[in-house]
UniProtKB/TrEMBL annotation:
Residues 4-223 form the DUF2229 domain. The lineage of its organism: Bacteria, Bacillati, Bacillota, Clostridia, Eubacteriales. Signal peptide: none annotated. It comes from the Bacteria. Pfam families: DUF2229, HGD-D. It comes from Desulforamulus profundi. This is DUF2229 domain-containing protein.
Length: 326
């Protein structure tokens, strides 16, 4: 029987799930994903996590709990330090496997091999070797498995750049027809935020679908190429060394500068340090130029759906009114 490896539907799931799934399956594992976020999953996460943590980390705790319930043999929580040269992922990712070990009882083995490409790309060899060894596979097989999985990852990123959202791109990779999005849209809105905030329908209060249902085409920073993101972020006097913040800021600036969107919504999570800085940077710049309407939404475990709906409706009304008035 294959070993069962659990992957939480949280944090960098929306970027790396196709890569991790294919890699682990090629190493002979059965991949088990935690359930879609529910109130119950979030509540369990909040109960087991330290109060000071940000909302996405609390939610990820709930997803790990969900995998413990599924009785998996391993939980895959790579210690994400850096995925790009001279850049970092938020330190909370780095400490996440340790926080989980300290706070969750009955955990199976945690696969927490580090990924740190800040200085050397070759660290990824070490990562594949260590994960392979934990699953009883040799270094060559592990490396080849990763190479094939990387091809899938590239295809996945290509689908995102074509305008699909993560769940849609994953369906296409699984051989399903892409869902037709409504073509009766009269405006385009960029939703800028961390992937685990904007793509999780529960935590974002179904933001993207609500916008689509209201007649808006939705774009995110992940629908841009790396080159476009970097073009956008060039206007900053200093390089942003947080990879996700760079993507968000560059994405917002690119959409703004190219005149591709009618409005920009920034989604921030409660207790997120990088979000408070990125949100401020984007807001200051966009308000100073005054070309594109901007709205900031803060999410926390108490955010009410009614408040979000009212604000979205008002924002879209204002964007539509502005287009006719200008
Ligand atoms: S970037 Fe913000 S939301 Fe993401 S893990 Fe770090 S503190 Fe939490």
């Amino acid at each position: 029987m294959p070993v069962r490896v659990g992957i939480p539907r949280a944090l960098l799931y929306y970027y790396y799930f196709p890569l991790w799934k294919e890699f682990l399956e090629r190493l002979g594992a059965e991949v088990v994903v935690s359930d879609r976020t529910t109130k119950g999953i979030l509540t369990r996460g909040v109960q087991h996590c330290v109060d000071e943590a940000c909302l996405p980390v609390k939610l990820a705790f709930g997803h790990v709990q969900n995998l413990v319930d599924k009785r998996v043999d391993f939980i895959f929580l790579p210690r994400m330090v850096s995925v790009a040269h001279r850049e970092y992922i938020c330190p909370k990712f780095l400490g996440f496997p340790d926080m989980v070990r300290q706070n969750i009882i009955g955990l199976p083995t945690v696969l927490d091999t580090a990924i740190n490409q800040r200085k050397k790309q070759r660290d990824i060899h070490q990562f594949t070797r260590q994960v392979g060894a934990a699953l009883g596979k040799g270094p060559i097989r592990s490396w080849l498995a990763f190479q094939r999985a990387w091809e899938t990852h590239q295809k996945y990123m290509g689908l995102l750049e074509q305008g699909l959202l993560p769940e849609e791109a994953m369906s296409v990779l699984a051989g399903k027809e892409p869902k037709q999005t409504a073509d009766n849209t009269d405006l385009t809105v960029a939703v800028i935020g961390h992937p685990y905030n904007i793509y999780d329908p529960f935590i974002s209060m179904n933001l993207i679908n609500r916008l689509r249902k209201s007649g808006a085409r939705v774009l995110t920073a992940d629908n841009l190429t790396e080159q476009m993101v970097n073009q956008g972020v060039k206007r900053l006097p200093k390089k942003l060394f947080w990879t996700l913040s760079r993507r968000m800021t560059g994405g917002a600036f690119n959409y703004h500068d190219q005149g591709k969107v009618d409005g920009i919504i920034h989604v921030a999570a409660f207790a997120c340090g990088p979000d408070s800085m990125t949100g401020e940077l984007i807001e200051r710049f966009i308000r100073r130029e005054g070309k594109v309407p901007f709205m900031n939404i803060n999410l926390d475990e108490h955010t009410g759906e009614a408040g979000i709906v009212t604000r979205l409706e008002a924002f879209l009304d204002m964007v539509r009114w502005r287009r006719t008035a200008v």
